[in-house]
Write a structure and sequence with these properties.
Strand content: over 45%
Helix content: 10-25%
Oligomer: single chain
Strand order of the largest sheet: 4-3-2-1-10-9-8-7-6-5
Shape: globular
Largest sheet: 10 strands, antiparallel
Distance between the termini: 24 Å
C-alpha cells in the first residue's frame, strides 16, 4: 500500500538519537553535531520512485526505487539499502559496517512522519518530522 511521503518535512522531536549513534560507534564530535541540528527533508515521490534531499549540517541527496538496492553514506560509513513497502510503512533494510539496521518511516494519524531506527544491537530511536 503506497503512501504519499512527498513534501517538505522538518524534524520536531527526537528520542534516544544520541544513544542510538553511540550504539553505532559514532564518535563524540559527530554525535554532538548530529544531535544539535534539526534536519529538513524534501521528499519527491512518483509512485515507487523517491528523491530525498536532506538539509542539515550538510546537504545530501539520494534517489531510490522500492525493491531495488542502492548505496548510501551514513555516519558509520557506506551502506547498502533496500526499501520495501510494509503496509503503510516505508521499510528500509540496511547492511552497514556495524551490522544490519532497520528503518521504518510512516505517517501517523497526527499527520507527522515518524522515523524509527533500530540498530543491530537492538538500540532504537524515533525521530518525528512535521510537514511544512
Amino acid at each position: 500500500m503506497a503512501v504519499n511521503f512527498a513534501g517538505n518535512w522538518q524534524l520536531v522531536e527526537s528520542g534516544n538519537f544520541e544513544q542510538f549513534l553511540e550504539a553505532m560507534d559514532v564518535g563524540l564530535p559527530i554525535r554532538k553535531m548530529a544531535t544539535s541540528v534539526k534536519p529538513r527533508l524534501e521528499i519527491q515521490q512518483d509512485g515507487d520512485s523517491f528523491k530525498v534531499k536532506t538539509i542539515a549540517a550538510k546537504t545530501k541527496e539520494i534517489s531510490f526505487k522500492i525493491g531495488e538496492e542502492f548505496e548510501d553514506e551514513m555516519p558509520m560509513g557506506k551502506v547498502k539499502v533496500k526499501a520495501t513497502w510494509d503496509g503503510g510503512k516505508l521499510h528500509f533494510d540496511i547492511d552497514s559496517p556495524k551490522g544490519k539496521l532497520v528503518n521504518d518511516r510512516e505517517i501517523r494519524a497526527d499527520g507527522r512522519m515518524y522515523l524509527v531506527m533500530k540498530a543491530a544491537n537492538g538500540a532504537t530511536c524515533t525521530r518525528i518530522f512535521a510537514k511544512q
